[in-house]
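Lab notebook, page 48
Experiment: co-folding of the full assembly
Goal: obtain a model of how the components sit together before planning crosslinking
Operator: M.T.
Materials (sequences as entered):
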Amino acid sequence: MVNITINGKLVQAYEGEMLLAAIRRENIDIPALCHHEAVEPYGACRLCMVEITKNEWDGWKNHVTSCLYPVEEGLIVNTHTPTVIELRKTILDLFLASSPHSTVIKKLAAEYGITRTSYEEVPDSTDCILCGLCTRICDKMGFSAISAVGRGHGKEIAPPLKEPPPDCVGCLSCAYICPTHYIQFTDNGKERTIWGKKFKLLRCEKTGLPTITEEFAAYLIKHREIPEDYFKINDLSHRRELALKMGQITQWGREA
Amino acid sequence: MKQDFTTIPSIIARHPRKASSLIMILQDIQKEFNYLPEEAMRKTAETLEVPMSKVYSVATFYNAFSLVPRGEKLIRVCVGTACHIRGSKVIREQFENELKIKPGETTPDMKYSLEVVGCVGACAMAPVVMINDKYFGSVKTSRIKQLVGKG
Amino acid sequence: MRISTPKQLKELQKKFQDRDNKLAKKIIVCHGPGCLASGAEKIYQEFKKILSEKKITGITLEALKKTGCHGLCEKAPLVAIEPDKILYTHVKERHVVDIIEKTIKKNEIIPELLYVDPQTKEKIVRYPDIKFYSHQTRIALRNLGHINAADIDDYIRVGGYQGMVKAVTKMTPEAIIEEISKSGLRGRGGGGFPTGRKWATCRKVEDDTHYVICNGDEGDPGAFMDRAIMEGDPHSVLEGMIIAAFAVGARDGYIYVREEYPLAVINLQIAIEQAREYGLLGEQIMGTYFSFDIQINRGAGAFVCGESSALMKSVAGEVGEPRAKYIRSVVKGLYDKPTVLNNVETYANVPLIIEKGADWFTGIGVKKNSGTKAFSLVGKVRNTGLIEVPMGTTLREIIYDIGGGLIDGRPFKAVQTGGPSGGCLPDTMLDSPVDFDSLTKAGSMMGSGGMIVMDDRTCMVDVAKYFLSFLVSESCGKCNPCREGLYQLYKLAIKISEGRGEEGDLEKMEKLSDMIILGSLCGLGKSGPNPFLSTVRYFREEYLAHIRDKKCPAGVCRELIRFEINDKCDGCTACLMACAYNAITGSKKQPHVINQELCTHCGACVTVCTRNAIDVF
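Observation: model returned without errors.
Model output:
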């Protein structure tokens, strides 16, 4: 265990974990839009930045993204200094200019007292905040069906050639992880559509309820050594087994 | 411009079959075809066992790559700092007027593509224009017509 | 042939020197970036043709030499005659016969090709007598303009590979690192991090693999020192890298070269192959157990790849997105292995430090900033070109003594250093010394060495806008403060330059700048607001003129200016020809008129008018 001080309180943190995890365990609310425990930290939204120092640093302070900074013995962390709050406000203000219609952004900005952006609204804005969660989870699942396209202010998330992605199996991980619900899909129980690609859903032989897409099942059978008859029936014991088989998604920094 | 895609596998084979060869292969393809044909990107992804999405991501990230065919003559107007303060903006506009295209575009007859480039490293001769692999220094507005003609 | 002992190298050097001494005259045709852009290749071919046709006694083709940048690019194309050190400027194909007939055969000088001192109007024969050259001290650029880049023998002739041979056969890695640390060499790429300390940290990381990388991704617009070194003296870079590799225990090295520099790639490739042939690269170098080889990676056009973690991703074939560096790349770099990354100029310094010792190096420059720094001196200065001066030289010495002052004697306004991460310094800073710490203190930075001189016709709002536009298009787009913050800063700069600025805009921009610096992930974002901050710090009045008076005093921002032709016009038609919008009318030898309806305020007419006949309002 590592001893650190968060907002004046001495706490213990796990060796190797990131500051954000320790901060959140203390029920301190700091926003982090590009962070999810299922994938590796990325440090893109910069909202989780905090001030750090140590007694031996002679008053020198640094500002770091807590999602990426591993805990260190003796670290003194402050999550809500005036500078940190100012930074979060600026970032939210900028997000509000680039995604003015996102309810998630609007709500978060309002919590920091910003109801209207003080900047010029970005033309052709979308709710995508380029947090990279969707592409990271897609990589992690082993599909890499979508990626960042272009760079700078014109960067976007898209499938290759902006066509329905051949490597997508319709697992919906990207849509579920998207913090602003920008990634849309439709699912009527028989058919599912995402990224412009249509998928047929398998049904449980026992209950008749839809399970996963044919493509997803085929992928799991081929690459994760799942028995072919596995997806015929959908019950809970199965699911647990599947989760263990997938076995890849671990909480960052600690064993599952 | 070459449209014979049968050479693609041999271009890819010039490099080690590993993911780190991706940029170098795309550069060679770009050189051969003047752009990155879809077939070539797919073939590269397949050979290197790199997801197509990564190939597309790299292809759209770097300035050197074009996803659409470029013209026979690639005119790159340097807009580096030295060129900027010695009037590269006017030079760029004159090329736009002369060719009737904007930077990043190609003339309908596929003869010319116009691009701006951050700096070509010939700053002492600003403003500079690069036509294919050739540098032209101290470019004056009166020379634009001539440059478009020869080059 | 493999070189495996120091003695063998000495003997080779002697052989090449003797061969060279036999040449009565040498004709140096500069093939630096400036000369190539001014037709140097044609001059070279003309010399080659005449020399092979005419069969002049005592002068063979061996006397003709292509070299890297000689320096004085403004006067390109340059031809130098050695050993007499004669410099001919603005040489054209038609002069070639004359040079051979007169200077080579009869030792006669051709006055019309000589450099003219801008102050004294005196013609100067020998280049060491030209102030541009006499005020310089060349270490990194030592061989430029003197050796054939594509010939390892020529490099060995001037003492090449002596430092590396000494390092590998007579020194321990620790002793090398100690020497480099003692020399005080700091990274020439701009950051100024102590090279020795970097190497020491890398060596200490226990791992079976270490890498050495050379950053040749000279992305700062307005800088071409690294291009000139890679093209003109590639072996000095290789030699520095081999020493670094031996010191940190690396087996593989990479040179990352900008894609806009095709000739650098060619010359480096030739150099690598030659070095392999001599056994200076490859297995068991100099008969030791040290093996090292180098591969070239061409950049694909992304400024952000000058940032170390982005560059390493690019070498690995990926998108050049920087990562947060809470673990430094010297510990966990390329493929997560300990990696030393230095820039071209830094490596070019290394062989001489090893050969001549740290004390020699610290004797040059100033305290904590030893040695020299190469700059590309460009913009509105008379003698544009490639220069190298001891650290601590003042801006005034560089701009006025070496650079010969401003073009047309116009007033100096600012000098920009450090590329898009740097800033603009005004005339009050002209006497400040040029070194890493002084420039940073003044609100700019050393950067890789671009030095762009600006006169009173340069608008600082426009300069800030220019750099912001550059950074917005070069941002990788990963983190919010850089992607969205710089974009908004750019939009605000446009607003001011178009006359829509309001009270409070500057304060808003300053506040946003602080947050971008604080919040950005990598150096590109963290230094992105510098061009704005330094211009607003020193030229606030100019910003206010745009905001309050809706005027651009320098006559640059198009929305705020109007051109008119005054009575100095003698109808030379130069402006009429230059106007792409047919907005100027008038007949020859009659005063011309600008049609304000058609005029786009592009300023093309002003740049061509030699009579000062166009007023800007």
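Interpretation: Residues 458 and 509 of chain C are 21 Å apart (CA to CA).
Next step: discuss with group before ordering constructs.
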